[in-house]
Design brief:
Blueprint (H helix, E strand, L loop, with lengths): L2 H9 L5 E2 L17 E2 L8 H13 L3 H16 L4 H15 L3 H14 L4 H13 L3 H14 L4 H13 L3 H14 L4 H18 L1
Antiparallel strand pairs: 1-2
Helix pairs in contact: 2-3, 4-5, 5-6, 6-7, 6-8, 7-8, 8-9, 9-10
Length: 204
């Protein structure tokens, strides 16, 4: 399936605030201007990610590619919000302790507070997958890909969910989209080959 068709499929699933100026004293001159404090962006600069993805697409050495992929993952984790970072930490700890209900509550708060933060949706998709709720995992993954179509974790996760659901052709399309961005991933290469062999066997 061509990459564009895959993305159409995936997407079909499922402030600024002014600073308070000091109260003016009687007879004092009015302030020259009101200073605004902008909330930091919840995603890293696009230019940095573009460079990293371009390097990853060209790199054929698995070890070097892994370092680039790790940098991409770290960049996508950047939220620019102390509150979001705290909630992500709480969600991660709760997930490690198998307290899935609590983890889900934290991740729900993140998606409400920072709907443009792709990693919050991706973390919730991963949690839904662990809980066996594949439809919700796919819905959240589709949201991640709407925000960041190159998201490696979302593409790999979507392939896993589709494969688990018996939708091998669509799982292969997700893996092909992933490998188009990260061609040196040997594990993903093997998964794609296994799916192709399985699909060929079904046709004969």
């Amino acid at each position: 399936m061509p990459a564009m068709r895959f993305f159409v499929f995936a997407l079909s699933l499922a402030v600024t605030s002014p600073l308070l100026a000091e109260e003016a004293k009687p007879g004092s001159p009015p302030p020259e201007r009101i200073v605004e404090q902008k909330i930091p962006p919840l995603t890293p600069p696009d230019h940095e990610l573009d460079l990293l993805f371009a390097q990853l697409k060209k790199e054929r050495n698995p070890q070097a590619a892994r370092l680039i992929a790790d940098r991409i993952t770290s960049s996508l984790f950047y939220s620019g919000s102390a509150t979001v970072d705290m909630l992500m930490g709480n969600a991660r700890k709760a997930t490690e302790e198998k307290r899935f209900g609590a983890a889900l509550d934290f991740l729900d708060q993140i998606t409400l507070l920072a709907p443009g933060y792709a990693e919050g949706w991706n973390a919730r998709a991963s949690l839904h997958y662990q809980m066996g709720n594949f439809p919700k995992a796919m819905a959240d993954t589709a949201h991640v890909l709407k925000l960041e179509p190159r998201h490696l974790g979302a593409l790999s996760g979507l392939a896993a969910v589709l494969s688990q659901s018996g939708r091998d052709q669509q799982a292969l399309a997700a893996l092909e989209a992933y490998l188009d961005r990260y061609p040196a991933d040997r594990d993903a290469q093997k998964r794609a080959i296994d799916l192709m062999i399985k699909l060929d066997g079904q046709r004969t």
